Amino acid sequence: MRDLFEKIQELEDIPTYSKHEQLVQGVINAIQEKLLTKGQALPSVNNMIKEFGFARETITKAYKELKDRGIIESKNRLGYFVANESIDQTLKVALLMFGFDTFQEIFYRNFRETLGENVHLDVFFHHNNIEVFETILGHIKGKYGMYVVAPIPHPKTAALLQAIPTNKFLMFDRYEPMEGDFSYLSQEFGEATYNAFVELADAIKKFDEVIFFYEPVSAIPIEILKSFKKFCKNYQVKGTIKVNYTAGSLEKGKVYFTLDNACIVSILKDCKTKNYKLGEDFGILSHNDEPVKEILWDGITTYSVDFGEMGRKAATYVLTRKKVQEILPTVLIRRNSL
């Protein structure tokens, strides 16, 4: 029973956990990690009191909840026993995302559908704020059977994530290095961006200048900025970096590169007002594909990973616990805008 006691003790420092919740989740964690098997006896109520000093009522309440959920059973005068090792219906998953842009919604929708109805899912957003990220991780630590996390590039990130057991952790979207052998499903930004620009070089050179809208404090990966500069230098293309797009500033002979959907909408409004022709008078290149970009103005050229596939693969890992370490391919999708 020492393994079970340790699983329960792991949760005692979480201030948001009641003693009752600590006992229930500790037993579930022990079953999920195969420390308890079907038919195995649980400690008696008296032994639990002796080990933890909890009130009898707290322990009997926890055992009753586990019994009501079909996880354990009681046998007359013999005590409590593990009734079911298959506890998918009780699996709780924490999904920590950047935000809920359209491409992230595509990930979520496919992740949720693949998980199925028997998995409880809670979603949190850190908005690329390390303080929010740290607060959320502190709040949810030890409360879930699986943690699926989009990390933040920050010196604190690795230490925060290493507090999560690797068998309950999946890193997705971005890849951030940390110690240990952990699972991840990520995209790559540097080489993928450079290759997309190289493939579009002939189309880009038909225009006078490429303008990249980049905010240094935004969530845009720095690798994209570096690759943009590298391409402009290597291919002798005039490249300009601006913080944001100003309404009414659309010019002929420019290619506009942006990761911001609101920026694209503003550019297209000006296109309509000035009666310009997209793909001829000016061009647009965007990162992260989504259905609306396929139909806007007969199509916006993008380069992107398949976020639906990422969501499905992430859910498969949660359900099977089969280790995955994959950088998903980035694909250039050429459309009318460039």
From TrEMBL:
Residue ranges the record marks as coiled coil: none
UniProt keyword list: DNA-binding, Transcription, Transcription regulation
Source superkingdom: Bacteria
KW Transcription regulation (keyword) present: yes
SMART domains on file: HTH_GNTR (SM00345)
One Pfam family matching this protein: GntR
Record keyword Transcription regulation present: yes
Residue span, HTH gntR-type domain: 17-85
Protein name stated in the entry: GntR family transcriptional regulator
Taxonomic path: Bacteria, Pseudomonadati, Bacteroidota, Cytophagia, Cytophagales
